[in-house]
Amino acid sequence: RATAPSRTAATMCQGSVPPPGEATGAEALFGQLKWDNRSLAALPTGAAEGPSRGVCFSRAAPEPLEAPKLVACSAQALELLGVPHGAAAALERAAGVDGGNESDDQLLGEVASLLSGTRLLPGAAPAAHCYCGHQFGHFSGQLGDGATMYLGECLNARGERWELQFKGAGPTLYSRRGDGRKVLRSSIREFLCSEHMHALGVPTTRAASLTTSDTRVARDKKYDGDVTMERASVITRVAPTFLRFGSFEIFRKRDPVTGMEGPSVGLESELLPVMLDYVAESFFPDMVAQHGGAGNKPAVYAAMLREVSERTGRLVAAWQCVGWCHGVLNTDNMSILGLTIDYGPFGFMDRFDPAYVCNASDSGGRYEYQSQPRVCEWNCRKLAEAWGPALEGDVSEHADAAATAFTDAFEAEYLRRMRLKLGLLASEDDEADLALAESFLDAMAASGADFTNAFRVLAQVPAPAAGEPEAPSEAHVAPLLGVCASAEAMARAAKPSLPEERLQMLLQVEQQNPGILQARLGVTPEYILGELRRHEYHAKLLERSDADKAAEDSRIWTKWLKRYLERLQRDAESARDGAAASAHAVKRREAMLAANPRFILRNYVAEECIRRAEQGDYAAVGELLERLRRPYDEPSVAGSESESAPAPAGAYCTLSKLKLDSMPPAWAETLAVS
């Protein structure tokens, strides 16, 4: 086990130690947070025991944990709340490691108690948010914060307002039959990915801390009846707000398909404007000023709807460009600020597959990688419907406008990011550049290339010389061939998710009762057709040798590189402006390395970290966090004397000497997250 560097309680709380006789330690540190719980003041809040009708929040109370232990902290996220830099950095260094100092361990225990809800943070006002949602395409009625709690909003020295939230602190009015708890494995994934996505430049909520405990909760990890007792754990999450599309669906009338309705149906005329005014004034003040303020509210709401849709479009473009899937893109998991929210069964792609599904429970493939833009556009339409009673004119027109705003923003941001990833410094025809990017993805899919590594090694492709376009050489092709999967790995990865017998049964049901599978199970005809094609494709792959695949991969990449080199040559000529060709090549490489991460949080890396932590080695979480928030760096060998030392082929983290940039090992190919 690692041991923390020497520290003292005074050092931990540097800059925040109170006068003699007042609170000390953790309470002094967090007691200085400047709480301004605007949400509860502006929006109706009900009692903890209900009812939920006519309220946006219901009071809640965290349940204490037994022997809470601080696993990891993010100094960056803590500072957003107003925790002093020195104290935040000290907490990050100390979390998850053995202290060897009684007073320091006592301080860390106090911090863990406050950041887990075992003791209430001074100034906090716990509450659970009431919302509804469309889940897998169908309205599910009231949902709400069943495992999360609003604690309040803090003002930092820059005047920024940040909402603080617990996830896993116990049951609320909206927990239904759940216990309101989260376990260590899912909490580690969310903690790491929240901070990693921020480092990748993807809009996201943040994670300030992760605490575990000796409290045990029963979980059926694989939904197969094998129940185990796992450690209850709590994340502190940070965002300007956790309001979501589903927040406004509490007024939805009875759904003709599901029979569900929102808890505040019939109250939209009085409560919806209150909610929209709060959102406009708190998060979109420019919209209020631009469209005439209180005297022209419908125009403010319409402009705000377009802005939310545009932000969502840019967010989804960012996801697509780092090969990330959310897994549960229900309307209740869509932020009104265009942030990645509610990390659950998410996943970064390894081998590129446009039909990649990260959620093992998504049997119909609704939220597969290639469908994320379409689904989120649909969600924007649902948001327009939810806001409809407060808008002027035909709601369908507002829904169309929201969808158009989403699509336009998505396409522009996707193209912008893809140009950077491909090293295209000068813009040409948008359609041609988009086609080049899409053809790169097609080549990756056909060759089984690793999504992250293929973009990264593309920066190694030598820039063409001036003059006549050159044909792709071995120096051009070799880097890309090096990130392609073997024939055997491709065949294993392409194995259909549905057995042949079940697929035939679904085909028969769909032919006899068209639409019934989608209505009842969310299984679309497109999914069934995709599975048919997957069966055919898998059969072909089983017959292919490594030699055959290598030859085919070479043909695929040679063909694409010819097109790419021609585009690079034109790009260099148009962007040079008299500068030397070598300077342009350097600029191109730098732009590509800044746009294409070296590391992502691969599922097998997260799983290895979880295994270590579940055995009591919590230092692994902080170690991996440090690596993941520098995803674009060319790393040194962990433990080397010089941070600038060149990395070996395949960079390692001391986390079991795990290669962070390689394809999954055989043991990890069957990992499933649900």
What can you see in these coordinates?
The chain has 674 residues and is of the alpha+beta class. It is built from 23 helices and 17 strands. The protein has helices spanning 9-12, 25-31, 38-42, 75-81, 85-94, 102-114, 184-200, 268-283, 285-290, 297-322, 372-387, 395-422, 430-447, 451-457, 474-481, 487-493, 500-512, 516-521, 525-542, 546-576, 581-595, 603-614, 619-628, and strands spanning 34-35, 45-46, 57-59, 69-73, 127-129, 132-135, 138-142, 148-155, 161-167, 182-183, 206-212, 216-220, 227-239, 324-325, 347-348, 652-653, 658-659. The strands form 5 sheets. Strands 1, 4, 8, 9, 10, 11, 12 and 13 form an 8-stranded antiparallel β-sheet that branches. Strand 8 (148-155) and strand 9 form a beta hairpin. Helix 15 (474-481) crosses helix 20 (546-576). The two termini are 31 Å apart. 47% of the residues are buried. Mean pLDDT is 89; it is low at 1-10, 14-22 and 637-649.
Q: What tags apply to this protein structure?
A:
8-stranded antiparallel sheet; alpha+beta
Oligomer: single chain
What is the general shape?
globular
Could you report the average pLDDT, rounded to the nearest whole number? 89
Task: Please state the structural category.
Answer: alpha+beta
Helix content: 40-55%
**Approximate strand percentage:** 5-15%
